[in-house]
Amino acid sequence: TNKIAPLCDVCQTLNLSNINNREPATYALGTWQDVYRKAKQHPRCPSSVLIRSFLDSSGLGSGKVSMQWMEKGGFFFQTEGDNLAFLNEDTATSPYGSARVVDETIDPELMKKWIKLCEVHHGGKCTPKQGVVKTAGNSVGVKVLRLIDTQYQCIVEAAPGDRYLALSYVWGPVIPLIRLLKDTMGELMQKGAFERLWEKLPITIQDAMDMVQMIGERYLWVDSLCLIQDNNDDMLDGITHMDLVYQCAVCTIIAAHGSDANAGLPGLNEGSRPADQDIVEVLPGVRMTKTRGVYNAMSGAHTARAWTLQELVLSYRTIVFTEDRVYFRCRTNCWAEDTIYDNFPTAINYVLSSGGEIGFLTDNDPSPLASCIFHLFRYAPRKLTKVSDTINGFTGILQFIAHQTRSGILEGLFTSSFDISLLSWDNYPRATNRPTRRAGFPSWSWAGWQGIKDGYGRFCTDPTSVNAWLQTKTYIVWYMRSPGTAKLELVWDINSELKYGKPEEQHIAYRPNLNDPYGREKAAFLEGLQTKPNTDDIRREEVIRSELDKRKYHFLHFFAYTVLVQGFESPPRDSEWAMVYGLLGAGGKKCGGIKFDNPKLMKKAKGPHELVLLSKMDRYDSFFNDSINHKRPYYWVMLIVWVGKDKVVAERRGIGFLYLDSPSMECVERDRSGMNDIGASLSSPHL
């Protein structure tokens, strides 16, 4: 046998002979450079080699390095989610700081064990929902749920209650040779269809079908084979119920490695992954290895694709295939094939599931509007093959939160708290190279701007105060115009409440009544003023219909107060991220601030500039990430530009604040005739 080299003086202080039941402690290793220097001085020190390898893979390159033995066990660096552990599965009395040897392929029995342990020990928190298929007693499901029957190797229509797994993967440039189309549906629903067409299936789908059978399940849902790709109605039905497809799955298979649909599921078959577990014998009979958190191990391609975000956060259980490891992540725990937490199912693994974590959406989120903004922040930078899927790729998350908040959805915004959803902006414009206008979506929606990923919803965590704001600080009666018909309809009214459910105390939402569709207290300044747009101006209606036909999305139509400002002040140089431009009134007096949706679009714009007064606030609390707090009350405002000479349709160009104290209001020009009719706008109609 090879003689084990002695430990260096640093590694000796770690007391590696004490494997189990260690007390929490911190071990200073010096600087990163010190670690490398000592590793060179003691090139045979096994522990030093492992630590250096760990630091390399973790990306640490400067500063001081310390190791901690955590209270829950395991050595822990400044890299959340990554870990050093002892290979001691046979003797371990605790899962903390313990690991096991990984084979070339994943044991199907281990995956079955994970699902079973979750079903037995985790109760309702991890129990998938029921009701993915619409029935006489369930009005919210998909009309038809198609599944791959891995036993009969064909597509079948599911019956209510059928168990199935779902697949989350990256298409990449690979266009599957076999997809569910109107012309292929008949063939794919014949028994044995996939046996005959096996070589034409992407490898990831082949592997997923094999895995389903390996673990004793039967049915699998895959987007390209379960939604009719050239049937708009079927695609729309599936997309709008995507939240249920993943929430009702027994488990979601996450193909987190590779950049296309032929990457496969590493570890499922022989030769499909590198068998290179880093194992070092640091003392006689004492072996150690490094482990990684599940999110740290996921491929950039999967975490960069827009569609995969909702597939990850909506599922109740996931089995994640990375380049060299397989993980199980549910809403209670996280297990991996190289750790032994599943041998101690009541022990919670907080380390493996941390790191660059993307948490699950929770059924009883106390702040669902803030949660939506959090996920929008994650979603916005991700890539879509088709820009037209900007809202579709986020619809599952929107539907999940809309159900929680008793709301409808209009162009990606919640209709039950529309005044909140309208207030969106880019909190880091320089980091994202500033938003650009996204064709095919309204300018008043986050979807209309590439890069918008923040909004007032992030601050809406207290239902009592926010509902009071909706009732007393907002005033616009929002109407919409639908593509195709141009019909004038309220965005929200008492019938909406009947459709989506009456809000309870914890819900942030309008409370409509017979006197007001938005449940607001009637403000004195609105007495005698028109709030419903006319539809009998033939010329105006022609313009609205013409503009609607060009764009194929909803317009807003409403009456609102507007003011004019003379110009804008460039943001201060020390405002590196915020990019808040000053609003300048008469005499160049600063009276507020504005976040341009795209500063380039405003470079050549000549004043005066029109602002729509949206709502009031009592104080400004650094909403735009500018580290400024103002106790002065202000209006939320929307900067608009008119499209064409008719001044019928307007587009949004920014969101900002206008101080409502006397000095500020005296330096802006107001329309003294009352509210303006802001007709259909490309993104926000006539404001």
Could you give the topology of this structure?
Layout: H1 9-12, E1 25-31, H2 32-41, H3 46-58, E2 64-69, E3 75-76, E4 83-87, E5 98-99, H4 108-121, E6 146-149, E7 154-157, E8 164-168, H5 185-188, H6 193-196, H7 203-214, E9 219-221, H8 223-226, H9 232-240, H10 242-247, E10 251-255, E11 279-283, E12 286-291, H11 294-297, H12 300-304, H13 306-314, E13 317-321, E14 326-330, E15 334-336, H14 368-379, H15 395-405, E16 409-410, E17 413-414, H16 418-421, E18 424-425, E19 436-437, E20 449-450, E21 454-455, H17 463-472, E22 479-481, E23 488-490, H18 494-500, H19 538-551, E24 555-560, E25 562-565, E26 567-569, E27 581-584, E28 590-596, H20 599-602, E29 609-617, E30 620-621, E31 629-630, E32 634-643, E33 649-659, H21 662-666, E34 669-670, E35 676-678
Could you explain the architecture of this structure?
The chain is α+β, with helices and mostly antiparallel strands and 687 residues long. The protein has 4 domains: 91 residues, no CATH class; 216 residues, no CATH class; 159 residues, no CATH class; 116 residues, no CATH class. An 8-stranded mixed sheet has the order 7-6-9-8-10-13-14-15, with helices on both faces. Strands 26-27-28-33-32-29-25-34 form an 8-stranded antiparallel sheet. A hairpin with a 3-residue loop joins β14 and β15. The radius of gyration is 29 Å and the shape is globular.
